[in-house]
Amino acid sequence: MIDCIKKYSIVTWGCQMNEHDSEKMSGILESLGYESTNIKEEADLIIFNTCLVRENAELKVYGNLGELKALKRDKPDLIIGICGCMMQKEEIRDFIKDKYRFVDIIFGTHNIHKLPELLANHNLTTRMIIDVWEDGGNIIEGIPAKRKYDYKAFVNIMYGCNNFCSYCIVPYTRGREKSREANDIVKEIKMLANEGCKEVTLLGQNVNSYGKSLESKTTFAELLYLINDIEGIERIRFMTSHPKDLSDELIYAIRDCDKVCEHIHLPFQAGSDRILKLMNRKYTKSQYLNLIEKIKSEIPDISLTTDIIVGFPGETEEDFLETIDVVKKVKFDSAFTFLYSIREGTPAANMDNQISDEIKHERLKKLLEVLNPISNENNLKLLDTVQEVLVEDTSKTDDTVLSGRTRTNKLVHFKGEKSLIGKIVNVHIVNTKTWTLEGNVISKK
Ligand code: 5AD
Ligand code: SF4
């Protein structure tokens, strides 16, 4: 029998925003009758959803694209599409047009809903189809998403960013801040709850400024209260928060909404006031530390995670020590650490005193030497406690071992039946490591 069902494969780089965009593309493709495959050789359509936030993400895309050339040679009907942040840059589109002429379809971050039309047009032409929207359109509602898990889901609450941190390309690729109407968000989450979803992660580049672009001016705190009332939803997470917009009202909402998990991801990026100013972050070290104090005093069991950049242009050893000082004072549960990466088109790319790779790596190493023992210490405090865990998966190496996350977003491993996946259980923690906890299930919710 000839298998006539078309298969697709999507490769995703970058943040949760991209991951969720890929879920939406999967939803669109499956509504067109495509089936997903992880095997590229089997695919009739391969889409690369790209990231531009750091150079290494960009280079990986070019490397992987090169590998597709041979596939296309063996299977000329294979359709290759590229989308995501890289495609919002004209120079990159031109480079792809020139160097990767076997690519069939290029589209951007604002028009993934046009995928069916682009595929139909592809059937009518042998030329590369390029359709990238600049920012400015309305939010497109109602795109079906094929979510990776039934019991947890990403939900966009806003798109874009107005902050223009001087190192960051995102405002240029994702456009200006636009919030979804609270009604649309609540409707989507109610539908998810009806389908058995227990945990939602609200996504936005700066969720704390949610609502500013809406006529209703609904605040993020108000949105949390609305979602907290949705029956069936048991956990609410959100990311990312900007320290300059994290209001008292929001801290109280996190404290008072029982479903909002005790975890805030609050990037501080750098500890030196001089560097923070050059980064255009709009807060000082002491303002950040005061904010952390306030959060900790209102929500004592809060888990705090962050993003840190080392080697921003002009960063001296003294500046770097201010970063280390913040880490020691806050005692983060974990951190994403980045070497500053020049992004053409951002103000920092043209700043003097770019830091050498050698110094960046040295600083990163020193930073991790401070961060890791603190993560370990924080986890050690959980020894012999009982943690509520949403069971997510089996371990990659042993399928009698399950993994899940605490409300504070810590990964826990424990023995158990696969039937527990998607359920919330109580786990007694019997061992802790720097990145994970181990325990025994003591009861189900
Ligand atoms: N270089 C290094 N890290 C960066 N980030 C954003 N832009 C850059 C860059 N040019 C980091 C920031 C941000 C996270 C998502 O990526 O820390 O919070
Ligand atoms: Fe980039 Fe800053 Fe916006 Fe975050 S807040 S997406 S780091 S510009």
TrEMBL record:
InterPro entries per UniProt: Elp3/MiaA/NifB-like_rSAM, Methylthiotransferase, Methylthiotransferase_CS, Methylthiotransferase_N, Methylthiotransferase_N_sf, MiaB_methiolase, rSAM, rSAM_horseshoe
Cofactor note: Binds 2 [4Fe-4S] clusters. One cluster is coordinated with 3 cysteines and an exchangeable S-adenosyl-L-methionine.
Domain (MTTase N-terminal): residue spans on this chain: 6-124
GO molecular function, a single term: metal ion binding
Xref: Pfam families: Radical_SAM, TRAM, UPF0004
Key word Cytoplasm present: yes
Keywords: 4Fe-4S, Cytoplasm, Iron, Iron-sulfur, Metal-binding, S-adenosyl-L-methionine, Transferase, tRNA processing
Cofactor(s) of this protein: [4Fe-4S] cluster
Enzyme class: transferase
GO CC annotations on file: cytosol
Catalytic reactions on record: N(6)-dimethylallyladenosine(37) in tRNA + (sulfur carrier)-SH + AH2 + 2 S-adenosyl-L-methionine = 2-methylsulfanyl-N(6)-dimethylallyladenosine(37) in tRNA + (sulfur carrier)-H + 5'-deoxyadenosine + L-methionine + A + S-adenosyl-L-homocysteine + 2 H(+)
Domain Radical SAM core residue range list: 147-377
Protein location: Cytoplasm
EC numbers for this chain: 2.8.4.3
Family matches, as SMART domains: Elp3
Binding site for [4Fe-4S] cluster 2: 161, 165, 168
Binding-site residues for [4Fe-4S] cluster 1, renumbered to this chain: 15, 51, 85
Chief location of this protein within or outside the cell: cytoplasm
Domain TRAM: 380-443
NCBIfam families registered for this protein in UniProt: miaB-methiolase, MiaB/RimO family radical SAM methylthiotransferase
Function: Catalyzes the methylthiolation of N6-(dimethylallyl)adenosine (i(6)A), leading to the formation of 2-methylthio-N6-(dimethylallyl)adenosine (ms(2)i(6)A) at position 37 in tRNAs that read codons beginning with uridine.
Family the UniProt entry places it in: Belongs to the methylthiotransferase family. MiaB subfamily.
Subunit structure: Monomer.
Protein name: tRNA-2-methylthio-N(6)-dimethylallyladenosine synthase
Organism annotation: Proteiniborus ethanoligenes
Gene: miaB
